[in-house]
Specification:
Layout lengths: L1 H7 L10 E3 L4 E7 H10 L9 E4 L2 E7 L2 H11 L10 E3 L4 E3 L7 H7 L5 E4 L29 H20 L9 H7 L4 H4 L1
Antiparallel strand pairs: 1-6, 2-4, 2-5, 3-4, 3-7
């Protein structure tokens, strides 16, 4: 996959199937596809998130190098530390399956349904470091082409992952403050008591 090495300057594993080496130019946040697609809907402009890849039922959002080491502390700071989330990060040389070139991805995916594809591909000639979410103090994603900050991304992903966990874990339990939960508790909504 000379496209990664020559046009983007990204290191690859050199093995087959090709893989991207994280931790050098970028890290990757790995989440369930449902949570990742929610982020794509929440941040629809391409400049808000960096490159995003779909690999099976997982989405990998590229973030600044070093973010994988920051993730546990950031989740703790955001008060998600004690909660089990399906949210991990790839960093420090961890391999990531390389999606095909964006123009070839659809053709390759037609033959191999498990092949990773780019949902938001990287842009050749554009440094990846300036296009991915990073840990910063200043605001982000204000429409000036600056991606959102890592803190905002992780907070939104943690919320989306937790919603998926709640929805799949207990489908027969009514949500708090829902009509069904209030009827079970015997506290009818005010509109039904008059």
């Amino acid at each position: 996959m000379g496209w990664y090495e020559h046009e983007l300057g990204w290191p690859t594993t050199g093995a087959l199937p090709p893989g991207l080496v994280t931790g050098v130019r970028f890290d990757a946040v790995d989440v369930p596809a449902e949570a990742g697609l929610a982020m794509l809907n929440r941040f629809p402009r391409p400049g808000q998130l960096g490159p995003v890849a779909l690999d099976g039922h997982r989405i990998r959002l590229l973030v600044a190098a070093g973010s994988a080491e920051e993730l546990p502390g950031l989740l703790e700071w955001l008060e998600w530390g004690g909660i089990r989330l399906d949210l991990t990060a790839l960093g420090s040389g961890a391999p990531m399956r390389a999606p095909a070139h964006p123009e070839w991805g659809r053709r390759e995916a037609a033959y191999d349904r498990s092949a990773p594809v780019w949902l938001r591909p990287p842009r050749p000639g554009c440094e990846v470091e300036s296009t991915v979410p990073a840990l910063r103090v200043t605001g982000g994603a204000d429409g000036t082409g600056v991606p959102i900050g890592l803190t905002a991304l992780v907070a939104a992903l943690a919320t989306a992952c937790h919603r998926i966990t709640l929805r799949t874990r207990s489908q027969d339990q009514p949500w708090a403050f829902s009509y069904a939960s209030r009827m079970v508790a015997g506290t009818r909504p005010r509109s039904l008591t008059s």
